[in-house]
Specification:
CATH topology: Maltoporin, Chain A
Structural class: mainly beta
Keywords: Cell outer membrane, Ion transport, Membrane, Receptor, Signal, TonB box, Transmembrane, Transmembrane beta strand, Transport
Subcellular location: Cell outer membrane
Largest sheet: 22 strands, antiparallel, barrel
Number of domains: 1
Organism: Undibacterium rivi
Shape: globular
Distance between the termini: 42 Å
InterPro entries: Beta-barrel_TonB, Beta-barrel_TonB_sf, Plug_dom, Plug_dom_sf, TonB-dep_rcpt-like
CATH class: Mainly Beta
Radius of gyration: 24 Å
CATH architecture: Beta Barrel
Number of strands: 33
Membrane topology: Multi-pass membrane protein
């Protein structure tokens, strides 16, 4: 049997060894028709009516996961692969449907986050301890969110407990000196005011990030706080504010004994929402996100800061069961670094409109957006989608949409590398899917083809009109096709909960005919969980085929399969014990060439007050 699939088979064998018993709350959650998703249409929609392929990671799954980071949690979801230069505190990338890390958009409580210099989110700074749930929506969403939403959107929601005031706390420890502590309080303070405050500290002594460099421990410390307040003047008028701040101090290997970075992430927003009449709801949000990184090591210290200011004015107009949405946005990016020539700012003004139709067995949506940048000019994107309910359980979907990614400040201005005339990347995506939902069972199969042009890559030989770049530059030169089939399934069978997914994909550089770096031809996951009295026992596997670490496809990263075992036990009301054994077979594998990954490791913790 292929070594990639051995943990899969062993995981099923371990799960099957436990006999059936009485039911208890499941941590492998199954979305139902009553589930509500916000991200797919920038408005609350019943999950059964959402035309875009999506996954929701619930609060219960996060609380009981024992995952070390957001990236580890995302690795278990369909359509997602990861790479990382060492342990959880090190630089990470998330690939959705074969796209680059810079080609997915990350939101925290509706606020865009990421670095304007490197592009993409700085994943290690996003604290898992502050997250309530995550919505993942696949496919192009530039017609709703603008630049960078080429492969999809990952929307992170911070903790908030509805209802009466409630206190939560958790503490845990594990291998590699891992220690976690969290405390929070949230709920209604009065009939009009609800608050949520959560603080957390995570740290890990870690292991050497590289296999060939300095054999020291590269650990991290992550401190975070989140705060949100919602005030309801009346049923027709609400105000609120949301705040998240984290500080990561992490060690890494680049040649010196004390390579380290200090990264700060902060989001803050203030919003108001008013129902003008029975059909018209309007909202206004002012927000700011900051991404600041100080790095010191074998080279000169550097500071790279990104500040984004955002204003969003949204109007939802109900026309029977349909919704017309009109949107205006302004985004201002400012970059301040120690690199001469890289500092600057740019502004983007946007207008968008969308229409969501629901008529008997027919579902449809259409959207268009116009973005005008002070740097790279104007860009228009659009999408259309149609779904038909064959009966109460089966539905078929088809969609087509365009998207784009804005060039980063590095690709535009970095001395000896950037080219100021670089254009945005562009893509056109077509997909079709079939969905089944009956009771606690969900099945989905989606085929997609995303063709990208004007990809920005590092080239050794620059065009003749580019001066002062003797060693190469970033330039719009490549084309790529990210195509594939993604299949997902969730079900409950008595005291068993089962979840699985598999992705068969072909992420190809059309210019060279080679596979895109660090992406596999196949990957997936499988989990089985069994409930017995007040305990739950589960096994999960994550597997991937081989990948190439470089664009030339010369450096191979072998395929791998990981087996994780976890369990929870309800000690008493509001208090539960969690345990997790990651990489139980002690698999030696790589997510990036010559960078180490964690071996067999355990984590044990206590959760109090989580509902």
């Amino acid at each position: 049997m292929n070594s990639v699939f051995k943990p899969l088979a062993l995981g099923l064998a371990v799960a099957a060894a436990f006999p059936a018993s009485s039911a208890f709350a499941q941590s492998i959650s199954v979305s139902t028709a009553s589930s509500v998703i916000i991200t797919a249409g920038r408005q609350p929609q019943a999950a059964i009516d959402v035309l875009a392929d999506n996954v929701v990671i619930t609060a219960e799954q996060i609380q009981q996961s024992g995952a070390a980071s957001v990236v580890d949690l995302l690795q278990q979801q369909r359509g997602i692969e990861i790479s990382r230069n060492g342990g959880p505190g090190n630089n990470s990338s998330v690939f959705m449907r074969g796209g680059n890390n810079t080609q997915n958009l990350v939101l925290i409580d509706g606020v865009r986050v990421g670095s304007s210099t490197t592009g993409g989110a700085t994943w290690a700074t996003i604290p898992l301890s502050q997250i309530d749930h995550i919505e993942i929506v696949y496919g192009p969403l530039s017609s709703l969110y603008g630049a960078d939403a080429m492969s999809g959107v990952i929307h992170i929601f911070t903790k908030k407990t509805p209802g009466a005031l409630n206190t939560t706390a958790s503490v845990g420890a594990g291998s590699y000196g891992a220690r976690k502590v969290q405390a929070g309080v949230s709920g209604s303070v009065s009939s009009n005011l609800s608050l949520a405050l959560n603080v957390a500290h995570d740290e890990d002594e870690g292991f050497s990030a590289t296999k060939t460099g300095n054999p020291d421990k590269d650990g991290y410390k992550l401190d975070s706080v989140s705060l949100r307040a919602d005030y309801e003047v009346s049923k027709d008028l609400q105000f609120g504010t949301k705040f998240l701040q984290s500080r990561l101090n992490a060690q890494f290997d680049s040649g010196a004994k004390n390579d380290y970075s200090v990264q700060n992430l902060e989001t803050i927003s203030a919003f108001g929402k008013a129902r003008i009449n029975d059909i018209w709801t309007t909202s206004l949000q002012f927000a700011q996100s900051t991404d600041k990184t100080f790095t010191a090591g074998s080279y000169d210290p550097s500071q790279i800061d990104t500040v984004q200011n955002l204003i969003t004015f949204q109007n939802d107009i109900r026309i029977g069961k349909d919704v017309l949405q009109l949107l205006a946005e302004r985004r201002e990016e400012t970059v301040d670094t120690t690199t001469a020539g890289l500092n600057g700012d740019r502004k983007t003004d946007s207008l968008a409109a969308s229409y969501v139709l629901k008529h008997q067995a027919h579902l449809a949506s259409a959207s268009v957006r116009y973005d005008r940048s002070s740097v790279y000019g104007s860009h228009t994107t659009g999408s259309v989608a149609y779904g038909y309910k064959l009966n109460d359980s089966w539905r078929v979907n088809a969609s087509y949409g365009s998207s784009f990614r804005a060039p980063t400040f590095n690709e535009l201005y970095y001395p000896g590398y950037g080219v100021a005339s670089n254009k945005p990347e562009q893509a056109k995506n077509a997909e079709a899917g079939i969905y089944y939902e009956f009771g606690d069972t969900q099945l989905s199969a989606v085929y997609y083809q995303n063709k990208a042009t004007d990809l920005l890559v590092s080239t050794n030989t620059c065009p003749v009109d580019v001066k002062g770049h003797p060693y190469g530059c970033a330039y719009n030169v490549n084309k790529a096709t990210m195509s594939g089939l993604t299949v997902g399934a969730n079900t409950r069978l008595g005291d068993w909960s089962l979840r699985g997914s598999v992705d068969i994909q072909d992420p190809k550089d059309d210019t060279t005919g080679l596979r895109l770096a660090r992406r596999s031809k196949k990957h997936g996951s499988l989990a089985a969980e069994y409930t017995i009295a007040k305990a739950k026992i589960g096994v999960e596997t994550v597997f991937s085929g081989n990948r190439f670490d470089d664009v030339a496809n010369k450096k191979t990263l072998a395929g791998y399969g990981l087996l994780n075992i976890y369990g929870t036990y309800e000690v008493m009301k509001n208090l539960s014990l969690i345990g997790r054994w990651n990489n139980a077979l002690n698999k030696d594998y790589e997510l990036a060439k010559n960078y180490a990954t964690a071996g067999s490791n355990i984590f044990v913790g206590l959760n109090y007050g989580f509902k």
